[in-house]
Design a protein that fits this description.
The complex is a heterodimer of chains A (347) and B (260). Chain A is mainly α and 347 residues long. Chain A has helices at 6-26, 29-32, 34-53, 61-85, 97-109, 126-133, 135-143, 146-174, 176-191, 198-204, 211-235, 239-247, 252-289, 295-304, 308-336, 343-346, and strands spanning 111-112, 117-118. Helices cover 37% and strands 25% of the residues of chain B. Classes of the chains: A mainly alpha (347), B alpha/beta (260).
């Protein structure tokens, strides 16, 4: 291979890629050497992308990178679809993406007679129910929808947990003695898998199978994560800012409002993101073991009846919920901390 | 002229695991109103610690310290320009500069005008809505200086404000400091380790000994004002820096041996 002529090298590479795949197909090697073929194909594609990028003008570089970022996942989906259809991958383990999409659609339009639930529920009733019964009405509505049931548990638990979490974290960050007293307890609870407090919550609530214990577990897990991070953020505010604040005449409340809180916000938000991820894990785990609705319940249920496309649809839904909530949090973050915008790129 | 700052027999002792260590030993300073005084000394001599004591950020172990207030008792006694800039990353240039007045409860419109005046004085008009991370080091330190001046303190305390800047930026800011001082005639305590900078800017240079820091000798700088960077080429400037260096050299060597 002549590396001094990039064009010729690229053509050689592309032909080698083509020949390799033809040989693999022709000799039906995909059936016996699937993982090896996958690895070699991946290396070929990376090399092609690297070499190909040399022919892209600098002004098109971002466009090229974006097409790589979008194109490769599409390629993976197409490859997945083809290999399952060709009988190389077990369709029970890896149902093809097209079937997952169909299953997702079926979930959206169908109604489960047995559990009296559906994926979407009746969200159009939210305004009138809220008018009649308030938050309890929303909770009732959420219970008949898998998607909104899960969303409701995550969001309600998260909000109930993070607000006291921030308050306790700030107190711990400011007061050394509170920090010393609570630190070991918090560290002990921190490492505990939060799902383990679920039995305790079921004991305490009148309806162990209702929404109460589920939301409580989410709230408690968010509470600890946010409290610890807020404490670290508040205690970690650079001393020079505290001195500047004091020297320029800020009183206690002003120090708090204008120096400590803004200084700690980046770490507080890191804690919030962590807590959100944990909240999602906790909710899905609870729905696996003890729920009649929810995306976690749905996923587990379709595993039990071996309807794997619908099981995968559950995974897709949890991903969508996670991405959505993360985006919302990201948006709140940029609104509350406008000074962070473009910071990493510029500093 | 009335005495503005009076420090008598200042001691600062730090408690360490290896027993108490004197950082400042019996240091005296008297500064007249409207004077620009530099404190120069080898690194680790306690000059920054003295400034922080003066600013009220750390207490002295013993000694008398007084900044005399002027006629207007509502004015803050001192404002510090910190070595590490210490402007708030979460505030725009405008909000950083108006921080002091805001904390004292000055109305929004009034403090905005005040801030704009000092932002203009340090030449950052185009950057009023920028956040610190969008500014260069020299610009950040201009913001820090404007913030101190907008606070209109009785005494301006500057802790090696140009120490982190490159040589050319430092020259530009030295000239700006000279102009700002001409315009305000504030009482300034200026900590630096650069003899040239001290001679260029000051009416008096106070030399500190190596650790523990105490008075070595004071030099009056009688180069006429207004000054600019051109005076660094005059024989008088060269003579003064040389004389001060002759005295300081022994202390620097002592400090180096101390650290070894």
């Amino acid at each position: 291979m002549n590396k001094s002529n990039p064009k010729q090298y690229l053509i050689t590479l592309a032909s080698a890629f083509l020949i390799f795949n033809l040989v693999f197909l022709g000799f039906r090697l995909w059936y016996s050497l699937f993982l090896l073929g996958l690895l070699i194909d991946f290396i070929f594609i990376v090399m092609l992308a690297e070499e190909g990028s040399k022919f892209i003008a600098a002004r098109h570089a971002t466009k090229f990178e974006r097409s790589l970022a979008i194109g490769f996942p599409i390629l993976v989906l197409v490859g997945w679809e083809l290999t399952v259809r060709a009988g190389i991958l077990n369709p029970l383990w890896f149902p093809p993406p097209s079937k997952i999409a169909v299953a997702l659609w079926q979930l959206i339009i169908s109604y489960n007679q047995f559990t009296k639930t559906s994926l979407m529920g009746r969200p159009w009733l939210i305004p009138s129910m809220f008018e009649k019964q308030g938050w309890a009405g929303i909770a009732t509505l959420a219970q008949e929808s898998d998607l909104f049931g899960t969303l409701f548990r995550v969001v309600a638990g998260f909000i109930l947990g993070f607000i006291p979490g921030i308050i306790l974290g700030v107190v711990m960050g400011v007061s050394r003695s509170v920090r010393i007293m609570l630190n070991s307890i918090l560290s002990a609870v921190y490492v505990l898998p939060k799902i383990m407090i679920f039995p305790i919550m079921m004991l305490m609530f009148a309806d162990p199978f209702g929404e109460g214990p589920k939301i409580a577990v989410v709230a408690i897990s968010a509470f600890f994560l946010v409290a610890i991070n807020t404490m670290a953020g508040v205690a970690g505010v650079d001393n020079v800012y505290l001195e500047a604040g004091r020297n320029y005449g800020a009183n206690r409340w002003q120090m708090f409002r204008h120096v400590i809180i803004p200084g700690a916000l980046p770490v507080i938000f890191a804690g919030l993101r962590l807590a959100l991820g944990t909240a999602l894990i906790v909710v899905v785990s609870i729905e696996f073991i003890r729920a009649k609705t929810g995306v976690g319940y749905l996923t587990f249920y379709y595993w039990e009846i071996m309807d794997t496309p619908k099981m995968y649809a559950g995974l897709v839904l949890v991903m969508l919920i996670g991405v959505l909530l993360n985006e919302v949090l990201q948006w709140i973050e940029t609104v509350t901390m406008p000074w962070q915008k473009g910071r990493s790129a510029n500093s | 002229m009335a005495v503005k700052i009076l420090a008598e027999n200042i001691w600062k002792t730090f408690q360490t695991a290896g027993g108490p260590i004197d950082a400042i030993k019996n240091f005296n300073l008297s500064v007249e109103e409207g004077k620009f005084v530099s404190i120069v000394g080898p690194s680790g001599c306690g000059k920054s610690t003295f400034l922080r004591i003066l600013a009220g950020l750390v207490p002295a172990t013993s000694g008398n310290l007084k900044i005399f207030p002027g006629k207007d008792l509502t004015k803050p006694l001192n404002s510090v320009v910190f070595q590490e800039y210490a402007i708030f990353p979460w505030r725009t240039v405008l909000d950083n500069v108006s921080f002091g007045p805001e904390m004292r409860g000055v109305g929004k419109k009034e403090r905005r005008e005040l801030a704009l005046h000092w932002i203009d004085a340090v030449g950052l008009n185009k950057f009023i809505d920028c956040y610190p991370h969008q500014l260069s080091g020299g610009m950040k330190q201009r913001v820090s200086i404007a913030r101190a001046l907008a606070n209109d303190p009785e005494v301006l305390l500057m802790d090696e404000p140009l120490g982190a800047l490159d040589a050319q930026t430092r020259n530009v800011l030295q000239e700006e400091l000279l102009k700002l001082w001409e315009a305000t005639h504030k009482t300034v305590i200026y900590i630096t380790h650069s003899i040239e900078e001290a001679v260029l800017l000051s009416d008096e240079v106070v030399l500190m000994t190596s650790h523990p820091g105490t008075n070595k000798i004071n030099f009056d700088i009688n180069i006429p004002r207004p000054r600019d960077l051109k005076i660094t080429g005059t024989p008088e400037f060269a003579r003064l820096t040389l004389v001060i260096w002759e005295v300081l050299r022994d202390e620097v060597i002592a400090a180096m041996e101390d650290q070894r």
